[in-house]
Amino acid sequence: EPEVTQTPSHQVTQMGQEVILRCVPISNHLYFYWYRQILGQKVEFLVSFYNNEISEKSEIFDDQFSVERPDGSNFTLKIRSTKLEDSAMYFCASRVAGGHNEQFFGPGTRLTVL
Amino acid sequence: AQSVSQHNHHVILSEAASLELGCNYSYGGTVNLFWYVQYPGQHLQLLLKYFSGDPLVKGIKGFEAEFIKSKFSFNLRKPSVQWSDTAEYFCAVSRSQYNNNDMRFGAGTRLTVKP
Fold first, then answer.
1. Residue A76 near residue A5, CB atoms below 8 Å
2. Is the backbone of residue B21 left (phi > 0), alpha (psi -120 to 50) or beta?
3. Fewer CB within a 10 Å sphere, N or C end of chain A?
4. How far apart, in whole angstroms, are the C-alpha atoms of residue B49 and residue B41?
5. Which of B51, B102, B107 is nearest residue A56 as measured by Cβ atoms?
6. Which residues are CB-neighbours of B86 under 8 A, at least 6 positions away?
7. Chain CA centroid to CA A53, Å
8. CB distance B102 to A33 below 8 Å
9. Is the peptide bond prior to A8 cis by the omega test (within 30 degrees of 0)?
10. Can you tell me whether residue B62 is helix, strand or coil?
11. Residue-wise pLDDT tens digits, A30-74
12. With contact defined as beta carbons under 8 Å apart, do B44 and A105 qualify?
């Protein structure tokens, strides 16, 4: 069964450094999402992406964040200058176009900012 | 503000007990409703979903949920829980099947089932 994959599973970085989190959505999916989950808290929407542009973003997704689909398979989340409070689990999700909205989630990347 | 509320933060049950986890949302208009489960150390998995039709939906592992539009609720139920149901349960709502459909999640309910 096809699944969303994410790399790395765990990323440790120093405050102020840039990180890129990678996701490979399911191949025939056209809508892509990033969510984050700070330890012990709820899953929060960050951004949705369709047709090579951001469709919607939350207030969390400020200028430090960017997303890109550099090729036909990867979907990346970049944090330009990480802060301690960026430490969280980051989940990628994708879904097919049209129809009902079932999003399929990846296993997540745990980002630790020191 | 539009939100998803899960009333129970932590529920502790013995095996074979019945389960009901509450979920209310405040979005207007057409919504899609989901329950996801997150087992310890694992990622989110879809338990069940509601888009339209019969408001009582059945999911995997014996779970079901009922959509009550008048109450803006989508409560999760299971008649008899097992130790393996120990996990975090998230209710999620998306607003329309035709737009970008970003999901809004509730805060989650941690279920602990004692053997």
1. no
2. beta
3. N
4. 23
5. B102
6. B39, B40, B111, B112, B113
7. 14
8. yes
9. yes
10. helix
11. 899 999 999 888 889 899 998 899 988 999 999 999 999 988 789
12. yes
